[in-house]
Amino acid sequence: MLLAFIITLSTRGQHAPEYPIGWEEKEAKPRNIALDRIASFRKTAVEFGYSKSFDFKGHFNDFVGVTKHDTNPKVIVQLKLTSLNRAQYLITKPIHPTQTHSKDPQGNYIFELHVIPNRELEAKILEFGPDMEVLEPIWLREQVADKVRCMWALYSD
Fold first, then answer.
1. Does 148 reside within a domain?
2. How many domains does the chain have?
3. Packing angle between helix 138-155 and helix 119-127, nearest 10 degrees?
4. Which residue of 4, 110, 130, 142 has the lowest C-beta tally within 10 Å?
5. How far apart (Å, rounded) are the C-alpha atoms in residues 135 and 77?
6. pTM of the prediction?
7. 109-134, pLDDT tens digit by residue?
């Protein structure tokens, strides 16, 4: 069980409900708060402090969703979409504000994102099923492929 002093400083929602963002006092960094997982709370008279110089808007510019992995670097993620309908959807509803797109010689759409990969990005990629392929970085491609292999193992007899 986590015990923490949390003050809601911002909300974050991208293709999902808003998430309250608080300040984790012990670790001195922002943290997303899953409201449905809070068992109880109580008001306290303890003075609460957080870094007022922390750039919350800038903090969320580098990744998809609400979970930032400090261990992953910001990279260029290249995704190939083979479905024109799905590509049009992604053009009108980008995964991330840094998203750009082009076409390869075969007519497939290539999307680029400048992000720190995380589980939310992987989930978004898997949401497109066989229509989307990770081209770069190779380590993310292998990570998604491992998840697909594990999924296949669940369904193969």
1. yes
2. 2
3. 60
4. 130
5. 8
6. 0.76
7. 999 999 999 999 999 999 999 999 99
17/55 same-domain check = yes
Residues 111 and 150 both lie in one domain? yes
Q: Which two tokens stand for residue 78?
A: 């290249």
Q: In sequence order, which ranges of the chain are alpha helices (DSSP H)? A: 56-59, 84-92, 119-127, 138-155
| Tens digit of each residue's pLDDT (9 = 90 or more) over 39-62 | 777 777 776 666 677 776 677 788
72-104 in b/e form (b: 16+ CB < 10 A) is: beeeebbbbbebeebbeebeeeebbeebeeeee
Note the Cα 122 to chain centre separation in Å. 8
Q: What angle do CA 96, 81, 58 make, to 5 degrees?
A: 10
Read off the pLDDT of each residue in 23-42 and give the average, rounded to a whole number.
72
The structure tokens listed for 53 are 């110089």
Four-residue CA torsion sign, 103, 72, 128, 144? positive
Judge if the upstream peptide bond of residue 17 is cis by omega within 30 degrees of 0. no
**Predicted confidence (pLDDT) at residue 6 exceeds the cutoff of 70:** no
